Amino acid sequence: MDEHGVDPLADEDVFRVLGPDGRPLPDATVPDLSDDRFRAIYRALVTTRRFDERAVSLQRQGRIGTYAPCAGQEASAVGSTHALADRDLISYQYREHGAIVARDLLSEYLPYWMGHESGTEAIAEGNVFPLNIGIAAHLPHAVGAAWAFDYRSEDRVVAAHFGGGATSEGDFHEAMNFAGVFDTPTLFCCHANGWAISIPESAQTASATFAEKAAAYGFDGVRVDGMDPLASYAITREAAERARGSADGSEGDVSRPTLIEFVEYRFGAHTTADDPTAYRDPDDVDPWRALDPLDRMEAFLRETGRIDDEGVEAIRDEADEVVADAIDFAESAEADPTDMFDHAYAELPPEIRRQRDELLAAVDEHGKEAFLRGE
Ligand SMILES: Cc1ncc(C[n+]2csc(CCOP(=O)(O)OP(=O)(O)O)c2C)c(N)n1
Fold first, then answer.
1. Domain residue limits, the chain
2. 266 in active site
């Protein structure tokens, strides 16, 4: 181990490809990917981290709303998304920004955090459901979408992301039960990041692991080092094959869901409205920094001759550029106060229509600018 000390997952039964130092473990199988794909995973990790740093800074400047940082959790979102096909659907909570980066949707997405509903509308084009703040409320919808894919014989799976705290919600259990009974092609991606705001995992569940909850619903639960991008890739790939019903290629295979517990750690605050020093010692974070996914992936690429100083520099520059472009794009988005009525209903219910008409009349009277925040 390095200067940070003991590997926090040393005694945990988690699937890993890379050791904490980024070297493949002696008995691990490194996923069979092209050099470009390995570098693309690294690029997405670096871009996600850069986005995260800039997003927190933008919030502090009043340029975006409340934001949920993801530093430390990039590998699970990026690695799992690389293991899916583009046609597969992603339904996420609010912290798995790496999935959006891996789908190359950052510019389309960022406007959401600036209050533009167009942000969530645009990512739908890339097969990503809108983010979900009502904890676990997206899970029955994700299972419903997976069921629909199965019903229509479409070869598509759904990766549904959520935190450990979400497993205490009824929606989680209903979704898991339905998926188990009806064999929906769903990957339940549980991000065990240590906390649900200020509640530690030890106070969240009496189960030894989140993964073992899957047994109650009759399907597999697996635990993986969620700060290892290649392990996150491999385990998701396997789960996606099982969901497609082609795990071992044998005829008659049925599609099965999987619960994947990504064991990881949230380095930063729950959101920009949170102060983690109120409930945890800053020193608690340190051991987890030794598992930083960016360092491990960079070390892996260097060790295997897939990248050098110049390559790393180029990827960092590219990440800065992608994020800067996304911010420019988002800040140039035209705001319309009536947007908030547009995307929830195909047809507005009478009461909502009345509210919209009232707003339109007020906009007519006072001008649009009166309803938009000034610079
Ligand atoms: C139904 C519901 N209850 C409570 C909240 C308030 N809340 C927002 S985030 C959060 C914690 C969620 O923790 P977890 O699912 O572990 O995800 P994490 O934030 O750690 O990524 C809570 C309780 C909410 N958004 N929705």
1. 35-334, 336-375
2. yes
Ligand 1 pocket test, candidate residues 70, 95, 96, 135, most atoms within 8 A of CB: 135
Q: Phi and psi for 132 in degrees, rounded to 5?
A: -130, 120
Angstrom distances, CA of residue 187 to CA of 5, 209, 237, 241:
34, 17, 10, 10
Ligand 1 contacts CB of residue 98 (under 6 A): no
Q: Kindly name the residue from 103, 161, 266, 296 that is annotated as catalytic.
A: 266
Q: What is the CA radius of gyration of the chain?
A: 21
279 in active site: yes
pLDDT per position as a tens digit, 46-82: 999 999 999 999 999 999 999 999 999 999 999 999 9
Q: pTM for the whole thing?
A: 0.94
Quote the tokens at residue 248.
């071992």
d(CA 341, CA 345): 8
* Catalytic-residue membership of 94: no
What pLDDT does 375 receive?
A: 47
Which of 250, 247, 91 is CA-nearest to residue 183?
247
Q: Is 70 in the pocket of ligand 1 (CB under 6 A)?
A: no
Active-site residue among 4, 141, 279, 289?
A: 279
Please give the distance, rounded to the nearest whole angstrom, from the Cα atom of residue 196 to the centre of ligand 1: 6
Q: What letter would DSSP give residue 257?
A: -
For residues 44 and 201, what is the distance between their CA atoms, to the nearest angstrom? 28
- Among 97-101, 185-189, 337-341, the minimum mean pLDDT is found in 337-341
Catalytic residue among 95, 116, 270, 296: 270
Q: Is the CB of 230 under 6 A from ligand 1?
A: no
Quick check: CB of 270 below 6 Å from ligand 1?
yes
The finding on whether 47 has its CB within 6 A of some atom of ligand 1 is no
59-68, pLDDT tens digit by residue?
999 999 999 9
Q: Are 142 and 186 contacting, i.e. CB atoms less than 8 angstroms apart?
A: yes
Task: Write out the DSSP string of 100-138.
Answer: HHHTT-HHHHHHHHTT-THHHHHHHTTTBPPP--STTTH
Distance 94 CA to ligand 1 centre (A): 10
The CATH homologous superfamily for domain 35-334 is: Thiamin diphosphate (ThDP)-binding fold, Pyr/PP domains (3.40.50.970)
